[in-house]
Design brief:
By secondary structure, this protein is an alpha/beta fold. It has helices at about 5-15, 20-30, 35-40, 40-45, 50, 100-115, 140-150, 170-185, 205-225, 240-250, 275-285, 290-295, 310-315, 330-340, 355-365, 370-375, 375-390, 395-420, 430-445, and strands at about 55-65, 70-85, 90-95, 125-130, 160-165, 235, 255-260, 265-270, 300-305, 320, 345, 365-370. The protein contains 19 helices and twelve strands. The chain has a seven-stranded mixed sheet with strand order 9-8-7-6-10-11-12, sandwiched between helices. It has a five-stranded mixed sheet with strand order 1-2-4-3-5. β7 (about 255-260) and β8 form a beta hairpin.
Amino acid sequence: MHSTLLAAYESVTHRNPGQTEFHQAVAEIFDTLSGVLERHPEFSHQSVVERICEPERQIIFRVPWVDDAGHVHVNRGFRVEFNSALGPFKGGLRFHPSVTLDTMKFLGFEQLFKNALTGLPIGGGKGGSDFDPKGRSDPEIMRFCQSFMTELYRHLGEYTDVPAGDIGVGGREIGYMFGQYKRITNRYEAGVFTGKGLGWGGAMVRKEATGFGVAIFTQEMLKTRGESLEGKRVIVSGSGNVALYAIKKVHQLGGTVVACSDSSGVVYDRDGLDLELLIQVKEIERGRLSDYAKRRDSASEYSSGATVWNVAEVAGASVARPCATQNELDEDDATRLVAHGVTVVTEGANMPCTPEAIRVFAQAKVLFAPGKAANAGGVATSALEMQQNASRQSWSYEDTEARLEEIMRGIHEACVVTAREYGAPGDYIVGANIAGFERVARAMLAMGVI
């Protein structure tokens, strides 16, 4: 590794003790940048690497709220505004008990390069809370969201920081937060949030965009081998928004998704998942996969406590999509997938594969795409939503989906061309990391030492 990168990484680990996920995200980027610094010494001379690892702003705040029984709870809120060299901070809000400052910094760092890959004018950030919406009533969630936004609103703005949804934050939560922002500021600033409802400033395809983008990117990867998703069997981890719409697009492209998971277990349908029922159970009823399996009866098999990678032996899948959460797929899982015929892995979540798993895929010559490239469709369509809000327009579903497809193909092309340029043809990690880094770094150099 280049001496500048080694020194910067030592500084990151020293100044951010215990933040292992953030360290992992930085290391994953740095491992691919030595050739960039040799070719562009100005990035070292102007300390771009050191500056790019330090967030512009880290906000931590108390979120008190009252449950339906009148008990007061206190959660912790976060917003890490990582880098605005390319545009206003942009990134989702996550409500989940696992949320810490470490999580937010790793996600914000990844978001920075993901957003750069879209080619759109957006910087990188991330936020959320350790609040768990699971099992809470609508009034409880509303009170929490209003309390959360009562602090966060002062740091947001359509030209400053534009959040969206993430795990635990969907249209309901965004509605409550946007309403409180509007109430406090006395402005209908539609562009301050993305992922809004279609009737009040939202964009067509936004709900589907991340999952659709993952499938489109996978299709482009397969084209490099003269293949397509047509006839392919696929397994997907997760059953939230990203997973559901990745499944939908795979089916549209002629593939068959045979398994998915939630935090309680895995469902396997040998002839393909019933997407309509899956959306009904998971998105409308907010139920569990066990409920889906009961209604499918003998058509599906449900395994409590298992992961989706456990079904690789019987699934006959050649494509795997980790779409749940970070570090969910480890070395043993990767070895199992390779042994049972998986040849393509596309990350739908952010950093779901451990470094050890990625090494297994590399050794087996599996086509592997990192989340910062493959799952960029969501934030790309958020930026399209911002464009519509700014111009007071609403585009059709077909127009928005066509723009999403164009952006995803552009990201794929950038990864392929950049990897080849730096002597690593076919390596999507190298291509994505360098293409994203160079765009941010050049903007930082142009703006001076800030």
